[in-house]
Amino acid sequence: MTDYILSDDTRAKLKKVSTASVATALFKRGIRNQYIQGVLPVAVKSETMVGQAFTLRYLPAREDRNPITVFRDANHPQRVAMETCPAGHVLVMDARGDARAATAGSILITRLALRGAAGVVSDGGFRDMAGIGALDMPAYCAGPSAPTNLTLHEALDINIPVACGGVAVFPGDVMLGDGDGVMVIPAHLAEEIAAECAEMEVFEDFVLEQVKNGAGIIGLYPPTQESNQVAFAAWRKTTGR
Amino acid sequence: MTDYILSDDTRAKLKKVSTASVATALFKRGIRNQYIQGVLPVAVKSETMVGQAFTLRYLPAREDRNPITVFRDANHPQRVAMETCPAGHVLVMDARGDARAATAGSILITRLALRGAAGVVSDGGFRDMAGIGALDMPAYCAGPSAPTNLTLHEALDINIPVACGGVAVFPGDVMLGDGDGVMVIPAHLAEEIAAECAEMEVFEDFVLEQVKNGAGIIGLYPPTQESNQVAFAAWRKTTGR
Amino acid sequence: MTDYILSDDTRAKLKKVSTASVATALFKRGIRNQYIQGVLPVAVKSETMVGQAFTLRYLPAREDRNPITVFRDANHPQRVAMETCPAGHVLVMDARGDARAATAGSILITRLALRGAAGVVSDGGFRDMAGIGALDMPAYCAGPSAPTNLTLHEALDINIPVACGGVAVFPGDVMLGDGDGVMVIPAHLAEEIAAECAEMEVFEDFVLEQVKNGAGIIGLYPPTQESNQVAFAAWRKTTGR
Amino acid sequence: MTDYILSDDTRAKLKKVSTASVATALFKRGIRNQYIQGVLPVAVKSETMVGQAFTLRYLPAREDRNPITVFRDANHPQRVAMETCPAGHVLVMDARGDARAATAGSILITRLALRGAAGVVSDGGFRDMAGIGALDMPAYCAGPSAPTNLTLHEALDINIPVACGGVAVFPGDVMLGDGDGVMVIPAHLAEEIAAECAEMEVFEDFVLEQVKNGAGIIGLYPPTQESNQVAFAAWRKTTGR
Amino acid sequence: MTDYILSDDTRAKLKKVSTASVATALFKRGIRNQYIQGVLPVAVKSETMVGQAFTLRYLPAREDRNPITVFRDANHPQRVAMETCPAGHVLVMDARGDARAATAGSILITRLALRGAAGVVSDGGFRDMAGIGALDMPAYCAGPSAPTNLTLHEALDINIPVACGGVAVFPGDVMLGDGDGVMVIPAHLAEEIAAECAEMEVFEDFVLEQVKNGAGIIGLYPPTQESNQVAFAAWRKTTGR
Amino acid sequence: MTDYILSDDTRAKLKKVSTASVATALFKRGIRNQYIQGVLPVAVKSETMVGQAFTLRYLPAREDRNPITVFRDANHPQRVAMETCPAGHVLVMDARGDARAATAGSILITRLALRGAAGVVSDGGFRDMAGIGALDMPAYCAGPSAPTNLTLHEALDINIPVACGGVAVFPGDVMLGDGDGVMVIPAHLAEEIAAECAEMEVFEDFVLEQVKNGAGIIGLYPPTQESNQVAFAAWRKTTGR
Fold first, then answer.
1. Model pTM above 0.95
2. What is the pLDDT of residues E39-66, one digit of tens each?
3. Main-chain dihedrals φ then ψ at residue E39, nearest 5 degrees
4. ipTM higher than 0.90?
5. CATH 3.50.30.40 residue ranges in chain A?
6. In CATH, what is the architecture of A8-192?
7. In angstroms, rounded to a whole number, what is the distance separating the alpha carbons of residues A48 and A182?
8. For D18, which of B80, B100, B128 is closest by C-beta distance?
9. What letters, b where the CB count within 10 A reaches 16 and e where it falls short, cover E16-28?
10. C211 vs D: CB within 8 A
């Protein structure tokens, strides 16, 4: 779907960027709907999740196609997705926003983490949230759910464009997740968004410091007052940022 | 996805069958979730809709991919779907159940009807419902919606398995629609469901006649009382059914 | 639950009363939540539905308790409800507001009508809406639904207090339905509500006539302007109401 | 909020325009969210509703502020709105999309119609839908609801900007309603939208005629194929449009 | 409803079982809908909740039946439920999934805990979540809610079958709760589910250990590869499980 | 809207009062709907939030009115609200309960806190929840959301009556928030609610102590048994409360 490969440099930049900044930078480009709705971090992580999307699509499960025995099939798409998602990528699952059943549990997500994935995002449920939350790898879902995916979700397609939390996710898009949730950065914009947001974070750090020192926000955020632009330039020099 | 081809004979049988009977016949086989939820007929039709599914999948529309100019592309999937859905088939659209924007309007659906389609089902909205309702071809959707599909829905894939109204629809499945909505009959069960339901309709016609004549339902529906089985056999002889 | 028996006289009065008037009269008594939410008439009827509640409670259907064979049981509560709801009563079904499956179909509702019931209200679905709508007896539900009740609803209790559309319905409460839906009148208030609403309807007929003749609503509705009270008194005399 | 006054000429143009065309014309300008969600016509009307917005805002009703006696106040905002909405305007009510109680009934809406209003739109409920639907004036709401507005809605402000069905409506914006629902045209765009949409309707009439005659949609809709542009020009000449 | 009494041995087994395993074991038996939807633990507990259901049903509260004075009645069902729920049982409240008002607060739940209950589950709200979360006894609800139950919920029936979070709960069914939520085990299946799930947990512990050591999931989970069956047998011997 | 000014004494009293007590005290006065639905604390705080409401109303954002450049306007209502909300007040934002976009982020809320506000409540989303949660000032919202408010919300009015979480909030009403959420106390009732609830808390502390010591709730809560009234009186003397 895309030839874009996330470079180490861009990944590093994005690691310091917030979902809020990404949302604003995309908004400026007329792209307004890239926040995955209804999905929260399974556990708070210190590091920001960054990685290209590798996708899995679930359909509603028809009972005759989804007995428990399907997992004996070495080609079952859910299991294959866990074993083929490339290291450094984020597995994104489309469960039609239906969290009444799980889309994965801690055994599978542990395997995914050990294989080096950068994270996992599902707009369905997860089972054994505690086990998943204890992993270093960030995970996002729509809530805990004990029922096996076979109850409501049939894993069908790997790495095709999907919908997740109301957002179109194309394989290779860059997923970025923090405590507020997950943004989808279209692959062709990843470089410029990374660059722009890195700058935004510097400026917001400056603003927050000013505000904590008692400054008002009008004229400062955005810096329409020239003195604030001057102060920011000075601050960058001083702080080396 | 399936080699099954709906025969004229089976189609004719199914034309006399209700969605309720199909739902019950599938329920007996442990298949419980084949009723397309949240979708109503655009207008009441005298004939039952019967046809194999030909599908179109929409994703959430990303703004930069969906300017109005995309319709100038002769390969735009929405337009291609209208021009390639085989005669006698039902076009089934997966719009993630989001009726806040249209998935088609009367010009496209008129074209579809003229090309001989057996019907159309969308779990998104339609625009110009009056124009669509005036066609002979049955149409089902989640409600009227003026906004163009580009607002929220990007047409992406043709004839892959989709979700519609919470049901998995595989290309070639048999869609059956009446005043109560639409059932999805898995292709491999179409023949036996048609046969079984044809018998069910005969029996229900008998039961309704009895009830209208004052009979109670216990022992009659189902006919656990032997006298009712005898009466039914007699009625079939008399009525030639 | 109540010893109250709806008299012919009160029934006759209520037949001329609207759900809107009942809602307002109950509101004046601090009873604000008696309108059954999410339920519409299956078909428009010229007569207002009036009758005491006879109830049926559905629970979520557990699969092992709800095979198709349960209908062979002469004591199945759904079928028993249809055969025992007293003439002149309204069968009220509690399906937890879940219309994804039917709570009855046209054969059962036809039997109910033939037994003399005054109406039926369900906050679940109905199958064969056309057949039900064609009956003289008014019927209200949350929408069409092809799946048999066994799919999601197990009929369990007859004539206990239930919830329907977010309203508590006690056996014997008076159900009143028109084109706007259904109100539940607590049994102990039925007489006074009937009397008060009959008067309200007379006054509203007067007001509507005035408005159609060009009168403004301020001072007229309610009649804070004395001249309107005088005019109303005169109108009652003239019209004999 | 706006000095714009809808001219007779523009009103006449808009009377022939569909909500679908308006939605597309606004979409081309990057304005994507002007369709009032969740609101349907009370009854089908032959004429399109066109008029500038005059607004009424409801807040959640606090019980001590909303006894039945408030209607005795000649300044009650709901009643005042009915008596002050200018002729040719559309009364737009913001009820926070909550249809569990009415925002008006047939007496008030009849008065509004007699005063010459062009229509009424509420994202709450209406009571006595039959009475309202029988008026010549078009009316749109989120469904029938028997409870008086006092139950859940306190009328508070007249003619301030409001939200209706998820759309911002500024007094003076042009409301346009047909069988598919209602679009809000920002006042400053009304002229150009009217002109553009009038042209769109002509073209769509041509296209529909072609389609009914067997033409395919690719190359015709939009007319990327030159022969279709030529045919359209000829058709305009012939039909005098 | 059931004569089944949960033995100490089965309780002990179930204490080591997860909701996920129970869901899968029931799924294998065709029972797919026993996970209480929309309900989360008030606070994380180290021990799994296990106990038979003792139920309380709430109806929508009619204002005239639910003044604050009803709590003066020594027979008020909410208070009686707290004082009669047997030790070792789980109090299950049916509030129709409506968390806009509380179904209990910390004083009542503290009393319940002191009386030896094994836990409490409500699909309505709780007030003073902090106080409830601080108890040793596990508690599950649909969220915090300050309003007293009288606002929306009338406690009516004790220990009849109820719906909770979309699941039928019969008195005596075995409730099992962990960090992912709550499963309802039909009483007649409790023994076999306990036995089967105890085995499943052993196997899953083995699998997780293998995965953490770098094993892939295909062929291991489920163990279709014979070497994994051998390894598991060896592991059981070694670990004494 | 109100002349009421919250005194230090009343504020101090309310600081020791729970939302549950306030809800009950208002319920006794027939005011049942003052709990802000769908809103949770961003982080647990040891102190109760108390302050008079200062409001900000958002409308759905029309794209042409809400480019990123609007923040350059020194009069942008969102920024002005942050700079003008009086110390000791609670900023209450009406975002129509739509948390798909943020209504503020940590820079603005930090400024608000530094200016001495007593808290902030929004029925929309917040971005940078971690930053907001780390402040001493309590904050409540409907969930995290990365998109800027401009995406869906246009800040329009300052300090007019608004709806927040389904509750009418009039400027000057007293907001009270704890771990269970937020109650709105009508300004004219603040004094008497404070007094009554202070007494309720004393009694509930007594009851909880009794319950922890093994007392049953019937006859104690409420204290219909005289001995409990006597015990309470004694307890007050002993504890000096």
1. yes
2. 999 999 999 999 999 999 999 999 999 9
3. -125, 130
4. yes
5. 8-192
6. 3-Layer(bba) Sandwich (3.50)
7. 10
8. B128
9. ebbbbbbbbbbbe
10. yes
